[in-house]
Amino acid sequence: MLANLINGISLGSVYAIIALGYTMVYGIAKMLNFAHGDVIMVGAYVAFCAITGLGWPPILAVLASVAVCTVLGIIIEGLAYKPLRNATSLAVLITAIGVSYFLQNAALLIWTSNTKVFPNIFADLPALQLGSTQVAPVTLITVLANIVIMLALTFFTSKTKMGKAMRAVSEDKGAATLMGINVNRTISMTFAIGSGLAAIAGVLLCTAYPTLMPTTGAMPGIKAFTAAVFGGIGSIPGAMLGGVLLGVIEIFGKAYISTQLSDAIVFAVLIIVLLVKPTGLLGRKVREKV
Amino acid sequence: METMLQVQDLQVYYGSIHAIKGISFEVKEGEIVTLIGANGAGKSTTLNTVGGLLKARSGKILFEGKDLHGMAADRVVARGMALCPEGRRVFQHMTVLENLEMGAYTRPASEAADSLEKVYALFPRLKERYHQIAGTLSGGEQQMLAMGRALMSRPRLMMLDEPSMGLAPILVKQIFNIIEDMNKQGTTILLVEQNAQMALSVANRAYVLETGRISLSGDASELARSEEIKKAYLGG
């Protein structure tokens, strides 16, 4: 029971970190970046190559992975989404799916379809003993990383000039421009942060579940998107709550109901929540502008 | 008095609609100038184009002698020209103080305290409510916030788009008093209004816009007495 709860929170923390990328980008650019899941996969491959190929220490590999994904996020936004700033949302959505396929196939070319076994980067750390339950270091570190990221982002958006400018852009781009805020640069910055976080999520995910292939990011990406909607898309605390709840529901579903049905249970819960509260758990009502 | 803003033969299109058909006007330093006219005459379009939110097809927008044509709105602000938009457009989910801070986005942090004090002096209500979420303010308070926010960028020219819209008469009076105060403190003002009577009562000069063209212009008090204006815009 306790072990399942801890595993659920840990898996949910990975979803939460990924969901942050979805929710921040949605909040600011009002678009669903379906390529976000694949950025996780790229992040994991970069870390994998740095550790097993170049023999870098894990911490350096993680930093390299964050750096690569941050730049990748900026490039994706600049090349694929920026030209569509005034296009219909359907065009942007289809482009995002295209970017997703592009990243998966590029990974297939570079790293082939052979499954890589991701190294346990926390192998040297001792496990935590909670009564009769043993908690693996990666589990604990994932939860801690989630908490630190959440606190840092909350501080960033509520206390710093850049963070407040992001909130202003997410509310009203025109008014934000009139304040002298460069909207394009702010959107680019949001992609950078979201993609950097995706790299961290990728490393944590693959340390806990060590199979790495070009489609590794797809399912967690969709689950994290679900988590973002579940918690209320556009809301940072919503992403955290949605992610953790989703992880717990998934693990409990696997443990007590059915391994095969666990994903169906997750999505069923999402449907029920959206029927009862269409804006998600912590989402706020969006007033349609006339 | 030196010319602060000079607009020459401005042409603006919305897609294929020719919204502004070659208008020219100027604002001198220290003045209050108003653009009046009916709904759809092109008043807001003109302000939004000068402020950089819309691109002109042709024409010149000279601010303190430099051409702003094609310059994006976020850079126009840094040049010393602020636009307080129609419908207030305060950041609804941010606090009053955060809204004001956003107004000072282009300014160095060292000025913030001083700018805030000046804005609070003009709008004591904002000081009382600095911690309140902007969306919960009344319409009049939101208008004050929008004006205070624009002032935070320390503009030499302030453009106000329909500041009286949707406000009770007593509040309209108050807002116009504040506009005059802002002007006395050294901010040049370009005002767009449907409430022509109020606008003409505070302005030095006025331009009348009719379907994308300037049909009349002149001294505000003279225009207020003209029969033509009375009939068309002042209800008799």
Plain-language structure description:
The complex is a heterodimer of chains A (290) and B (236). Chain A has 290 residues and is mainly α. Chain A has one domain: ABC transporter involved in vitamin B12 uptake, BtuC, CATH 1.10.3470. Chain A contains eleven helices and four strands, in the order ααααβββααααβααα. In chain A, helix 5 crosses helix 6 and helix 5 packs antiparallel against helix 8. The longest helix of chain A is centred in the N-terminal third of the chain and has 28 residues. Chain A is globular, with a radius of gyration of 19 Å. The N and C termini of chain A lie far apart (51 Å). The mean pLDDT of chain A is 92. Chain B has 236 residues and is an alpha/beta fold. In chain B, 37% of the residues lie in helices and 28% in strands. In chain B, strand 1 and strand 2 form a beta hairpin. The termini of chain B are far apart. Classes of the chains: A mainly alpha (290), B alpha/beta (236).
